[in-house]
Amino acid sequence: MSNTQPEQPVLRAEALRKHFPVRGIGTSGVVHAVDDVDLDLHAGRVVALVGESGSGKSTIARLLAQLMPLTAGRIVLDGEDATVHNRRAFRRYVGRVQMIFQDPFGSINPIHPVRYTLTRALRIHRGRLRGRELEAALDELLERVQLTPTARYVDKYPHELSGGQRQRVAIARALAANPDVLLADEPISMLDVSIRLGILNLLKDLRDRLKIAILYITHDIASARYFADRTMVMYAGRIVETGDSESVTQDPKHPYTQLLVRSAPDPDDLEARAHGARGEAPSLVNPPSGCRFNPRCPFATELCRTEVPPLLEVGEGRQAACWGYSERPDRPKVTDVLEVLGERPGLDTVAGAPYSTNGGTEAST
Ligand SMILES: Nc1ncnc2c1ncn2[C@@H]1O[C@H](COP(=O)(O)OP(=O)(O)OP(=O)(O)O)[C@@H](O)[C@H]1O
């Protein structure tokens, strides 16, 4: 672990951009998957990145993991440019920044027992451990992810484990690096609802005890409220709102966040719920000009259709990229989407289970 000052982020992304070239028959263009995203991750804090399918969340995780090159922007680790340009730098980087994937079935090699998977990770990151030293390290990793008694799990094959247990092994493998940052891309969305809370509570424990900085990617804003200190809402490749999770989910400012909260728990169901079927998620090959949400926004004006709104202060530590919060005389009059679209289920209606903030039973695996 590094001695990062609390006010200095461990990992910082500056003006991240990723455009994917696409070629079809007779067409070519670029997918504007991520545009101008700034993001800070602090030791012992969780940031949730929330948005519907295709908004660019996974692309951000893969950029931060440096699994693919940036189109533009910079990645800064402990205040220093950490954009990797060669294999050695990448190896150093993955010793600090580890990723957990959505699918614990796909991310762990099915032909090897847990012992092999974890030993390999330990050897990559901590050198050639052997004998007692290796057994102690394996024990410690399994204990950290609460797979105890460890002897029951260490020689199991992935097919002998439940989805939740497999995700715990994937987390243990990430911990073998002693990382400062975990990038968790939808780590619970493929798991049975009954075991999701257990995995989130495990990640909370790692945040608190190991002071790991966590990026938690999800399309489920209720789980962001339960788990994350801060929440960033993404729409069509851009960040549209940021702030502490409680305020963002209880008093959303951006019309998109308002819709997301009202349509929780499944934002991908947003169109069906947003009465009037105000269009679909925009093409990212030809994104709408101005605010990318404008074709679906009940408040949009000419200003929204022509100029990209910057992230504006909308409260303490809170920002929203919506012209409605600007001083512009031609700004739209933003109220609450509920007033325009009618009553929808609010977050409170759905947040009680399984992400109750005051307790909730933890399933062990
Ligand atoms: N390798 C690629 N080549 C071309 N386009 C891509 C590539 N990877 C992602 N995209 C596009 O970039 C956009 C953002 O995708 P991304 O997977 O980051 O979204 P997401 O919010 O993580 O969605 P989901 O929740 O479904 O994973 C999508 O339009 C997607 O089709």
TrEMBL record:
Residue ranges annotated for the ABC transporter domain, each copy included: 11-261
Keyword Cell membrane: no
Keywords annotated in UniProt: ATP-binding, Nucleotide-binding, Transport
Descriptive protein name: ABC transporter ATP-binding protein
GO BP annotations listed: peptide transport; transmembrane transport
Organism: Agromyces intestinalis
Homology family: Belongs to the ABC transporter superfamily.
GO MF term list: ATP binding; ATP hydrolysis activity
Stored InterPro entries: AAA+_ATPase, ABC_transp_ATP-bind, ABC_transporter-like_ATP-bd, ABC_transporter-like_CS, Oligopep_ABC_C, P-loop_NTPase
Superkingdom to which the source organism belongs: Bacteria
